[in-house]
Structure formats: C-alpha cells, structure tokens
Amino acid sequence: MARINLTVDGASVSDDVEPRMLLVQYLREKLGKTGTVIGCDTSNCGACTVHLDGTSVKSCNVLAVQAEGCEVTTIEGLADTVDTDLHQVQESFRECHGLQCGFCTPGMIMQSVDLLKENPHPSEEEIRLGLEGNLCRCTGYHNIVKAVQHAATAAGGAR
Amino acid sequence: MTTLQDPPVESSPEIGRERRRKEDQRLITGRTRWTDNIVLPGMLHLAMVRSPFAHARITSIDTTEAKASRNVVTVLTGADLGESQGTLINAWAITTDQVTPAHPPMPSDRVSFAGEIVAVVVARTAAEARDAAELVDVEYDELPAAIDLKAAAAADSTSGVLAHPDLGTNKSAFWKFDSAEAGTGGDVDAAIEKARGDGIVIEREYRQQRLIPAFMEPRSTVVDPTGEQITMWSATQIPHILRFALAATTGVPESKIRVIAPDVGGGFGGKLQTTPEEWLTFCIANRLGKPVKYTETRSESLMVAHHGRDQWQKLTMSAEKDGTVTGLKVELLADLGSHVSLVGGGVPVLGAFMFNAIYKFPAYQFNCQTVLTNKTWTDAYRGAGRPEATFAIERLMTELAAELDVDPIEIRRKNWITHEEFPFMSVAGLEYDTGNYEAATDKALEMFGYDDLRAEQQRRRESGDPIQLGIGVSTFTEMCGLAPSRVLGQLNYGAGGWEHAAVRMLATGKVEVVTGASAHGQGHETAFSQIVADRLGVPFEDVEVLHGDTQTSPRGLDTYGSRSLVVGGEALVRAADKVIEKAKPIAAHLLEASVDDIEFAEGRLSVRGTDQGVAITEVAAAVFAAHDYPEGIEPSIDSEATYDPVNFNYPHGTHLCAMEVDTETGGVKIRKYVCVDDIGTIINPMIVAGQVHGGLVQGIAQALWEEAVYDDAGTLVSGSFVDYLLPTAADTLSFDVDHTSSPSTTNTLGTKGVGEAGTIASTPAVVNAVVDAIRHFGVDDVTMPCTPERVWKAIHSRGAGGEAATEGAAAPHFDAAEGTEGAGA
After folding, report:
1. How buried is B317 (Cβ within 10 angstroms: 0-12 exposed, 13-18 middle, 19+ buried)?
2. Is the pLDDT reported for residue B799 higher than 90?
3. Which of B346, B469, B697, B733 is 20 to 30 A from residue B767's alpha carbon, by CA?
4. pLDDT score for B824
5. Which CATH number covers residue A121?
6. Torsion of CA B255, B261, B267, B273, to 10 degrees
7. In this structure, are A7 and A69 located in the same domain?
8. pLDDT for B822
C-alpha cells in the first residue's frame, strides 16, 4: 500500500492505495466519483478522461500513485454546483444534443474543455482530430462537433 | 394515395418542438446511475473464467488455488451449480422443427465457443476476483471447431465438423417464403427462367460480415437477494423480458423478482439479450444470500456479448430489358454462432419481408438456412435483418442499373411504388400504409447536387484523375414498430408486441407517466413528456416519465425494433385520452353541467358555449380530496392503456453518398452524405436528427471499417478496441439530413420509427458509392468492410476486392490469402 495525497474536485483527499490501482479505480471505488466511467481496457475509448493538473488524461492510463500531489478535476467538479452554473461545454452539449446515452459524455466533455483551452477557435477538422481519442457509439459525432463549435463561439462572445 | 404533410400545426405547441432533453442534466454533470456505480453493503464481486478454445471437452477444473486466494469467498463451476443456474432461452423458434442446442449459462462438460464461462470466482473485490480467476486450472480436450459458415452449413454427421456433435447437424432451421405459395405474387423460378430467354438476370453473392454492437457501457449486473424480493439491476434494453425469463427458467416466482434497468449506456440490439452473466449473478447471489455484482471488461464484452449480421446472401433477380424487375430470389445462410439466442434465429426472418423493399416485384422467394458454428452467438444489432435485406436489394438494383447502363435513380423510379398506389400490399404480404418515394428522392437529389456531382465524376474519369468520384444511392424502407402480436404468433415468436403506458394525475398538478418502453439513450423522457404535455395541455416541465423498473412499470415489452414511439407512444396517447374521458363526468359535476356539454381543449374541461371551465389538474386535485364527486364512479382519473399495433410501420428515405476513392492507395473518403427520411410526424426534430446521425455512422462503419474476425481456431482476433475499428470523430463527417413527411395512418400521431433508419439505409449507399467510383476498372463489388487493401485489389484485379471473406484470416481487415500471422493461427 502507498499513501497518496491529492486534490479531487477541490477537496483534499488522502488514502492508502495498492500501487497497481488505476486513477479511475481510485476515483470510482475509493471516492465514489462515479461520474467518471470505464468504457474499455485498452485506453482507446476515453470515457474515463479527467483533468490532471489542468490537462486531460485518460484516468485508466494513470496510476493513482502518479496523481500524488496533483489536482484532479472530474466531470463532477467541472460545474460550480450540481444544478446551476454549468461549464459552457456542458451547456453546449445539452444545447446541441451532443449526447444520447451519455456514457461517453463525461470523457467527451473533459476532452472538449481541454481542446478549447489549447485552441479556443478550432476548425471542424481540428475538433475532430482533438476528439479522436474519445469514442461515441450513439451520436455519430455530428452533434458533438457542433457542441464544441457552439462552446467556442459562446466563450468567444463572452470575452 | 399518400400526400405530404407540412410541419406541425400551431395548435400543437409540443409536437415538433426542439425541446432540450430532460435526461441531459444528470448525464452532463456525472450524476448518473450506471449499474456498475451501484455499491451495496457486503457486496461481492464475480470474475468469469472463460474458455480459450472454441470447442473443447472440459476434463477437469481445479479450483483449489483460486479458493485459497486472498478474499475469495468461493469458486463455482457448472457442476457445482447444476440446474440451479436455470437455462437461457430462445424466444423465437422460427420453425417447429428448429434444432436448438441446450443453453446452460455455464456448461459443465463441453464448451462450444471461445469465451464461454467454465467457472466463476466470487471475491470481496473485483480485482481480487480477477486475480483468483487466473489461478483456476482448467484442463480441456480440444475438439475440432466449426468456424466457417459455408463449411458448417455443408457439414453433416458423416463429413465436416459439427458445432454440437450430439445434434448430428449444424443446420438449425430452414425458413421459406414464396409469393406463389402465399398468394401474394407469382412464381419466381418461372420469372427467372423467362428472363434468361428474353430479359436479364442478375446473380450476385454478398457477404454480410459479422459485426459487434459495441455499446459504450460494458454490461453490468447487480443482484440483491436480501429482503423478501430479489432485485436485479442490469444494463439491459429489456427489463420486462428479463424478469419473465428469469422467473420462467429458475423457478423463482415472477412476483419475487424486480428488475431495474437504470441509466443504460447504449444497446443497439446488443443489450436485447438474456445473458449467462445475468443468470449466474442471479443464481450466485441467491445461493450466497449476499448482493453480488458482475461487470464485464471491454475485451469480454467484444468477445461474448452477442454479435450481429454474419450472412452469406445469394441473390437472383430477373428483369425485362427495359429494367422492370420481374422476380427476386434470395438464398441466405445465417450464422447463429454456438447457440440460438433470445431472438437469434429470428433476425434473418425479420429481413425476409424487406428484400422487396420499396419495389413492385411481381414474384419473390426467400430461403434462409440458419447454421450453428463454434463462435459467439449472433442476435439483434441495429436494424436486425433489415440492414442485411436493404443492403442486398439496394446493391442489386444498382447492379441492374449498371448492367443496363441507366442511372441508378432511374431504375428505382421504374420499379418503386408510386405515392398514388398507397396503401400497397407488398409481394412479401405486408400492407405499406403510406410513403412518397418520389418526394424524398427529389429532395435528396436537390440537396446533394446530383447532376453536378455526376458531371464531376465524368470529368475525373475522362482525365484519369487518381482520385475518382463515386455516387451511391440507397432508397430504403423498413418494417419497424415491432410488432402486431397476432403476426408474431403466426411467426411462432414467444411473446407479443404490445406496449403499455399509464398516466397518473397527481394532486399537485404534476403528471407521472409510466411507460413499458425502456430507454437507453433515445430520450424517451423528453419525447414522451412532449406527447403527454400536448395531449393533456399541461406544461412540459410538469410531466415526469418513469421507465426501466418492473416495480414502477409492471407491464411492458421494452425497447428495440424502433418500437418505442410508434407502439409505446400510441399506448401513451390512448392512456392520456382515457384520463380526459374519466375527467369529463367529474368536471361536469363540479361545473353543474351535463357531461355531454363538456369539451376538452388545452388542458381545460369547459362547458360548451360558456366561459365556465376547470383545468384537468384541478380535477386531479378534486378527486384526490374526493369530497365532492359524482356517485357511481371512482375518485381517480389515472388511466392506463395497452396498445397492440395493427400493422408494422414503414419509414423510408433516400440516401446519397459521394465517395472519393484514391485509386493509387485504395483509400476512400466520404465527401458528402445526404439523406431525406420520411418518418411521418416528428415529435422532437433534434432527437430525430441525433438518431439519424448515429445510425448513419453505424451503417457507414459496416461498409468501411468494422468486422469481427475469427482465426481458423475460432479465436476472435478483433477482440479489443485496438483491433475492432470503431469510427472516431476524425473518421467521420457532418451530414446533410432532412425530411419529408407522409404520416403513418396506423397510429394517432402519424409517427414512424427512426432508431434504425440511418443504419439500414447507409451501408448500401456507401458501398454503392465505392463501387461506382471504380466500376470503370471492371469492378462490380467490393466486399465489406471496404478497406483500402480490398479497394486497391479490386481495382487491380478487376473483381470483387477480397472475394474470400476475412473470416479465417489471422489479422482483421486483411484477406485470408494475404493474412499476416496472428493469435492462435
């Protein structure tokens, strides 16, 4: 067992974990952060994407011990409160119907937030390439791309 | 005659409105209830030990070391559980003499596909269960495995390999429809014979490769047996059917079982199943008296969650020299895999009525042989039988056009049912209620810029451009809204096709709607709220839709076959109408008027010709208090309705695909995709567009990318997302989607199903486009998926790329002859 100390969605947490425990397992099993989900076992699907010190990572591809001292943000920490003050990307996914079953959505939103941070005004092609590591089986990506465009425009308008 | 209808009228504020989804708040904030999220006190976890062999006798299982592993509670085998595990059922024996292998969830003597469960480890954590599963020592005697579909079909007890040697055959059932015998058309053999003399005969054989539904949420089941009732949460499309089947096969009374499908992350037919994992979780939880959870890994999901498609299609079409089709004969081989699963054998039968599609064929015959092999069993995958049929006919019509050197649109115009001819009795014996193929096609052609693209295609051909342009056409229809119960009875299906709904008028003015349709991403909560808000004149926000729990929704037949809106929605309309009828005498009493004078509009029951009235929500409050209501009636306006459809439902549409093919590399790129679907009245255009987009990509993926590939030993070599090519955002494009509307006449709202439309229509549009781009090289087919390798080989060999299917090849998307070495080869 190894002791880790980190910040998850704004709260300091400290736990003893097996060295082999994945960050996603730590989030789900130890912290009950079930908003972050597991969609595959080969790091292909991106459903478990979270932010580690502000950058998107697939949390199935990071060991919990590697998050020592880091700041982790999950889908549950993206909005200020559960009912209001959604992040613009969350709003845009709803507005543009960028989700159906919603299983890929936490990862897709977290990746989109990171994409827009890197590139606030992406072209359609840049959005598509930026989301390549996140699989969705419901939407055909059409409305996900629209949602990211919508978020980019809305954020631009706010500035 | 079918006439087009304009978009919704103004008196209908909710129908046709792009309401944002009620479901989304919890999904975009991560406050979801996936089955794998559920944690119960003392809950134990399962890990499955699975056979690495496609066909083998189990000679011994040593669980000693596994049982001694840390925090392991027990390890159980098929011998340990015996009959207590129940059995998996086939709900649709397509013939009375269908050969149906016994299907225990965990066999004790012989495995018949790679991935079959041979032992279950129960431990305190999932990780400990998986660790211990590695320690279970199973000895096998490997048996020859029946892998290739054609070889399996040809095998018998004297030669070849049998998937189940005890059965003496791999042939499960032979199902036939003949229009001459049914009295719905002429003799197809005579038509073909005649055409061989004075007409044209097109003969083709197409491969429908095996696909994996690959819903994003891996399947998960939790069973809690503590208390008087056994509760199962499962990532399923079919909580009601699951509950019935559990009770019917385990001996546990149905009334003691509650099944909940919480948030379910996609299904596409893949969760239209009753699974060994569900049965084992149920059995073991009951045996141990503790809550138990099993969640599959993605690799397990790809390997053992049922697959789809997997057919060989032999097709013979006869026509006159002017392009008028005179007959169609279909001979199918359908791969069932190792068992006849819940509706596995019925999938090709669902296609049997659709090969004639939108056309006026005078003679038609369908023959299907279902075949057992030692592979994962097949069952419904988005479209279930209808994509296969649509692919065959839309490829064939395009081939006929090419053979006659006419435009593929023209050959369709010549043969399709015109809008004046509806209702139309098809040669397969179905009555199509409405349709307007001309209108959808004209609109699609205009959106597509068909003539300009044809001109560009011509220019590229003439200049010998290395990038050639192809145009693919697919004018599809489907039968959905499963299904009229009596028809299902005639087809020997084990259940009905009705749906149930209840409307509860709460005292505070809110409305609870209960539906038996169980959503897994379709947006039922939103669309059904719109319907009820519209029907009862209450605010959209005041309607709450409940579903997916056999306790709150005791009657239902769940979600598949594009049935939720056209069957479940109609049940809802009828239940809401009953609420209004029940409210009328109470309103009359409250208003001191005659019930005959009460009329209902926009949420109010009014006395005709006066301004006297009462809101329906006030009536609900009045019967809650029940201080003042008429004698002789119950103080409730809650209502329910069970609706059994009178007919299937026939959406249709025209899909056009422009494809660029790099003749130097074989690479393909969709440049433009236009579809105009006629799905009748649209409740929520935003949700509909989403269904179409997602459906399109799944159909396009069959054409270009996806295939479940087995090696010769029966090992799935495309068993992870590294190898099974699910398209990403970078592979796909934005679509041009529009609609025409000829409302269905078989339901009150005029709706048609849309969940499967995109998938059914798009596959042939894409393959037709690929072939069209390179037809001048002498190519008339490219086997799916149309990989760069196959396209390049087709161009350079002047024939169908990959004549041999990928089946048997060691690496996915490389053909057998060129296959590289891979696992198990």
Report:
1. buried
2. no
3. B346
4. 34
5. 1.10.150.120
6. -20
7. yes
8. 35
Same domain, A105 and A62: no
The percent of chain B in helix, strand and coil, each rounded to the nearest 5, is 35, 25, 40
Token output for B707: 């295939």
The H-or-E segment that residue A12 falls in is: strand A11-17
Average pLDDT rounded to a whole number, residues B113-119: 98
Peptide bond preceding B601 in cis form (omega within 30 of 0): no
Full residue range of the structural domain in which residue A138 is found:
88-158
Report the pLDDT value the prediction gives residue B595, as an integer from 0 to 100.
97
- Distance in Å, alpha carbon of A42 to nearest chain B alpha carbon: 7
Interhelix angle B685-704/B757-774, rounded to 10 degrees, is 40
User: Are residues A59 and A113 both part of a single domain?
Assistant: no
B265 in contact with A, Cβ within 8 Å: yes
Q: What's the distance, CA B135 to chain centroid?
A: 38
Q: Which domain holds residue B345?
A: 148-211+307-417
Assign B823 to helix, strand or coil: coil
Q: Is the ipTM of this complex over 0.90?
A: yes
Closest to B690 (Cα-Cα) out of A28, A141, A21, A63: A141
Q: Using an 8 Å CB-CB cutoff, list chain A residues near B298.
A: 39-42, 45
Bridge-based pairing state of the strands A2-8 and A11-17: antiparallel
- B336-382 pLDDT per residue, tens: 999 999 999 999 999 999 999 999 999 999 999 999 999 999 999 99
Q: How many domains does chain B have?
A: 4
Q: Are residues B614 and B687 part of one domain?
A: no
Which residue of chain B comes nearest to A102, CA vs CA?
Answer: B27
Q: Single out the residue in A34, A53, A77 at which a domain terminates.
A: A77
Stretch among B6-10, B305-309, B692-696 having the lowest mean pLDDT: B6-10
In this predicted model, what pLDDT tens digit does every residue of B261-271 receive, in sequence order?
999 999 999 99
Q: Band the pLDDT of B280: cuts 50, 70, 90.
A: very high
Single residue among A77, A106, A124 that ends a domain in this structure: A77
Verify that B513 and B658 share a domain, yes or no.
no
Q: Which residues contact B81 (CB under 8 A, 6 or more apart)?
A: B106, B280, B283, B284, B287
Question: Would you state the structure tokens that stand for residue B73, as one six-digit string?
Answer: 């509670």
- Measure B394 CA to nearest chain A CA, in Å: 23
| A74/B720 CB distance under 8 A | no
Is position B8 within any domain?
no
In a domain, B727, yes or no: yes
Q: Do A132 and B520 touch (CB under 8 A)?
A: no
Cα angle for residues B775, B708, B36 (degrees, 5° grid): 135
Q: Does A101 contact B721 at a Cβ distance shorter than 8 Å? A: no
**Interface contact flag, A109 B32, Cβ < 8 Å:** no
Cβ contact, residue pair B28, A97, below 8 Å:
no
Are the Cβ atoms of A37 and B217 closer than 8 angstroms?
Answer: yes
Largest CA distance in chain B: 87
Pair (A100, A142) in one structural domain: yes
Is residue B4 predicted with pLDDT exceeding 90? no
User: Same domain, yes or no, for B757 and B699?
Assistant: yes
* Angle at the Cα of A86 from the Cα atoms of B35 and A153, rounded to 5 degrees: 120
Residue A82 domain flag: no
The yes-or-no verdict on residue A29 having pLDDT over 80 is: yes
What per-residue confidence (pLDDT) applies to B1?
78
- Which 103-142 residues of chain A touch chain B by CB within 8 A? 103-106, 109, 124, 127-129, 131-142
Subunit contact A39:B298, Cβ cutoff 8 A: yes
Residue type, A35: G
Distance from A43 to chain B by nearest Cα, in Å?
9
Q: What is the pLDDT of residues B505-557, one digit of tens each?
A: 999 999 999 999 999 999 999 999 999 999 999 999 999 999 999 999 999 99
Q: Do B689 and A97 touch (CB under 8 A)?
A: yes
CATH of the domain at B319: 3.30.365.10
Q: Does residue A114 lie in a domain region?
A: yes
pLDDT above 60 for B10: no
In a domain, B484, yes or no: no
